[in-house]
Write a structure and sequence with these properties.
Mean pLDDT: 80
Strand content: 35-45%
Largest sheet: 6 strands, antiparallel
Radius of gyration: 34 Å
Structural class: mainly beta
Distance between the termini: 76 Å
Shape: globular
Length: 1127
Amino acid sequence: MSAVISWPTLMLHIAVEREGQPRKELRFAKDSVVVGREAEHDLQLNFEDGASRQHCRIFAERGQVFVEDLGSRNGTKVNGKRIAARTPISGRDEVEVGKVKLRLVEQAGAARPSVKTQAEPAEESPTTQAPARPRAKPAAEPAPKARSAEPAAKPAARAAPEPAPKARQKPDAEPADGSIKVNLKSAAPEPEPAAPAEPEGKPSGPVHDENEACRSQIDPLARRWRDLGRPEGLLLHGPLLARGLAWVASDRKLRPRPSELHREFIYASRTDRRHRLRDAGALAGAFVLALTGGSITARALHKDLVLKDAGPGQDNGAGQCMPDNPAIVRANELAKKAADQTDPERAILAGVRALVAADGPCAYQSDAEPVLRNALSRQRSRVIGRVSPIRGADVGRGERDVVTVDDSGTVTLWDRTGASSARTLTSSASQARIAVLGPEERWLAVGTASGAIDLWDLDQRAKPVLAKQLDSHREPITAIAFSDDGRYFASGDRRGNIKIWDMRGTDAGNGLGELRAHKGEIDRLEFRDGGTRLFSFGGKQVYAWDLQDGRRKGKEKLLAIGGDATAMAVNGEGDEVVVGDSIGQVLRWKVRTLATAQADALAKHDGAVLDLAFIPKERAVLSLGSDNKLIVTELSQVMREGSEPLQVGLRGLQAEPLHLAADPTGRRIAVSAKDHKIYVWDVQQRHTSAQPVAVFDEHVDTITALQTSYDGNVLLSAAADGTLRQWPLQSTEAGGTLAVLSDHRGPVLALGLGVDGSRLLSAGGQDKTVRAWRLDKNGAPRRLLERTYDTAIRTAALSGDGRWAAVGVDRQVLLYNLGAAAGDRELRPIERSHHNDVVSHIAFSANGEWMVTADDAGTINTWPMRQDGPEDSPANPAALGRPVTAIALSPTSPYYAVAGTDNRVTMRAMAASGGTAEHQVAQHEKSVLSLTFSPGGDYLVSTSEDFRAILRKVDKGKTEELAERSAIAHNQRIRAAAFSYDKRWLATGSDDGVINMTDLAKATERIRPLTGHEAAIVALAFEPSSELLVSASVDKTVRLWFVGDLDRGGEVRQVPLAGHGAPVTALRLDGGQVLVSGGADGQIRIWPLRHESLLGLACRTVGRDFREDEWADLYPGDPLESLCGGK
């Protein structure tokens, strides 16, 4: 006898209790039970029980039973507490599903590994059922009586054969009252002949074409989702989710059936979809009120949310999306109306309504998305908020906070990323006059009309706390400034008094001293040099003060000028100050020490100087005068004492100016004018073109505040029209993007994007800098990492889970753990070398278990990835003997493909156990430019300068030619290729701007190429639904191609995404959440892909809903709908 130790497969034994009814016990011949109202679920409850369609799942893993909620409306509770994640349970725990209570009926030994010999009785194993020894029927159970009372009128075919009564002796399988139904196929204990194990989802009988196509599309996505830790960003949505749900609900006789992994993936996607719709507060009205606004029904809008919508023969997928589909017809009617709108905001709102109508499995077949994207491209600003006329605003130093004060004295804290709602801060003292954010965005100081200062603690941003109220001033507060390190802040009032406050320690807000010299209202305060120097402007005077520990040190210095002072600006070091006066003079004071301060004249205007600013890194001063002149004075041209500085006048200003804002990075200048417009100049072009590069004209009333973000990417303006707007400062076009990052000085060399879309990596070769960001649910970035190196970067990569950023610097590979970054930009890298030449390529496997690096000498190292980083030494180093030109890792097996300068493509094993031999895949005539695996790892394509793309079938590191499909020809060199997730299409793009579509299922058919790009294609990627192809080109555009149109025989629709000022150099689309493009202009543009993100962006862009008069004009007779939450 041999002993076998194994974990038993638990058969769940569940007791069900309902108020006023006897307890029922149910046994299931499986270790996973889904509870809900759907007929196909294992345990079916009623609507009156408070159960959702799909409520929860009870399942066993390694002897432990868990329960997890599946996105139910009322939630699932364990012992009275609502659960948020899977929760272990035992027989002592009570699970509440609405009004129904579930308990485990524990069996002795069920949760322990058993030790059995071959002679052990079969019935002692919980996984074995013995028909020869049926369990005795309890006399008290009423179920058998109910069964025996079946009417005789039933068809003869229903008569049970001899073994059937034995199966019905299990009274726990179905209660007599019928209030709780059980799927008898999964609950019946009758044994079935053992079937051989088969791979997940593989067919074992007659194959249904639609099921097989759905399996081939979903299986690689589900495996990748599982391997990467089940990230939300990889879940299904839209048409592909609809097809998955239809697959789950299809006839059980049709093969292949979804595996447990497939079901878990599809159910999780439906749960995520429900949560996203429920949490999209700005769009709540769109998905609720739109149901009653026209002919659209809940089924048309949410077919991808309901499992049982399709009737017999329907597939809930693309097969129903014909041109005469009511949802498509209605959406196209609304889209046409949106396209006819000339006002950008009305066009966007009308596009929102059209896309809401199209939402569902047919969304890609309507014209709603192209129309809405085109409307967004026309709107350059994004409305952060709409309030009463705005008096003033301040921008935080991070990527998030903006604070405004309106005419009513109300203070509002805005999140310019849109990730959280605005907060109104109420003072108990009096109306607010000014509000300023501290450097770390921890503190907000609000000055009031009574002279009190409110200190708000923003540590918990969702619930700001009024920490202290300072009552030292007796006049209205007119100016506030924090020191750069946040240790001090200064306040000035209408009488010219200045007070210094200590913000150190727990007792923030202690008064340190008072400065008196001004004879009128304080207009501006500026700290420099770590809070040891303060500059003040007010009462037509400018003073400089030396401070020590926040208190006056020595005598102040009056920075005098010929007329009354009207403007002041201080450079970053605090050793130079420029002052403008009422007669047009601009003087520069050198104040390295106050005792030796000296002044020299810079510029002369024909009227009062309105505003001044330094241009960082350019050694230049901007002066704005009432003579409508904007003069740039080049300080670097002042070579000797008394010489005249070089002056450049910027032209194009069409009205009297109001405010001046200079980009902190020294690239752009912005001026607001009385014509309600904002004029933007490029600093670098000041000597060649003095005209503005952009004019923003979307305000309709006086602009009251103008300020740039601290990273220089965004310009913010507030106006008397009540709008707070955000503009792209470094790009004249940003419509339709979630964010534009303009940090790189030179081309973007590489991009990396985590599969859930939450982390982004970029590398610039010219500026030798790598950066990483965390992206929130709206695509708004928050920087995690920034590093500049002494040598140029050749390559960079991000692991699929977004945790590891790898950079090739000279002969080293540096890895940064972004999962531990938490905003710390001083992360220490993990260094790996083992290279004798410059590292040229880095790639991670799809499951994150491997990293492969290669150098110019042809050395290739494969690194197993541990939790704390790569192994110390490579697992299977290889010497190619020639420089590497392209490399790609299989997403499903431990192999990689590599090409060298000999134009040969080979396959190698990553682990030493796979051997060191190489397997030749293809031989090109010229250099190989790219290698691409299909998502399932069963195809590999290589593209080359020889105008060919060679396609191979892959199996366990070996490849074979495909008859009639082995080579795809173009008229010019091919740089890019991409496979669709459903294994239907191979797209290849060449230098003539043509994309060839190869149908992998129909080799002999030639598909008409996609044309529209005017220059070379550099990157291609499919969206996970396979309905959308994305291309990037040297013609400065990214294009979306609705390739689902190929199956319908029509022209493939395309939407150009413009905005890059130079060729697009990189493209990433992992997970289908967002699309990220990088260009030779140094810009990184983040675009929405999912319809939820696109709708959210549209509503955030306009910041309002339809007005009643607009609605009546566009949709006469239709009841008014709230599309953007009634803003």
